[in-house]
Amino acid sequence: xxxxxxxxxxxxxxxxxxxxxxxxxxxxxxxxxxxxxxxxxxxxxxxxxxxxxxxxxxxxxxxxxxxxxxxxxxxxxxxxxxxxxxxxxxxxxxxxxxxxxxxxxxxxxxxxxxxxxxxxxxxxxxxxxxxxxxxxxxxxxxxxxxxxxxxxxxxxxxxxxxxxxxxxxxxxxxxxxxxxxxxxxxxxxxxxxxxxxxxxxxxxxxxxxxxxxxxxxxxxxxxxxxxxxxxxxxxxxxxxxxxxxxxxxx
Length: 250
Fold this sequence. Notes:
Helices cover 46% and strands 20% of the residues. It is an alpha/beta fold and 250 residues long.
């Protein structure tokens, strides 16, 4: 890969994303159509039913075409390892975007049911098309909503999808960084986590989730056991980032 590909600050698509940051928080998309273009690229270039090839195609698009705010390949390996360690029967992702994180979870836990919560209906549809192409559409489900919508999404997970006390084995946080702590607390209030549930949180340094990080540090050895993985921002090797991997102690 070229220097331009490994240093996102040199890429126009990175700066276009930065300029569209308000769109991201409001609509879940950058605002220039790159998410829909990523779907078209995957469907045209990845073998149907081959989850590895689909993930590779998404990474290639993010490096060669337009920068994406997926967890990415480097941090994705940390997610993979946590998923394998959790061996989940039921996994919950907050923040679907183009469906990349859920794909990695589905690949690392091939018998798991994976649920992903997404603010944007357009993102949800994009993700479903990618999951179907990868051959996992029958066990990866996207719900449009937020954990902070007054209980509507949580109630749907419980009443329609069978989320019950102690049923969630893995949680992946990759949505609104300001909501990490409050949304985790909502899951705890429902009693869905159990001793040994693993929670992975992306982008804890950039853009940053300081309240979440402070909570995990304060709870270290009490409610949670956390490892902070030093890594880099999506699709680059320069900007530092943190991925937190936390075991719930019950």
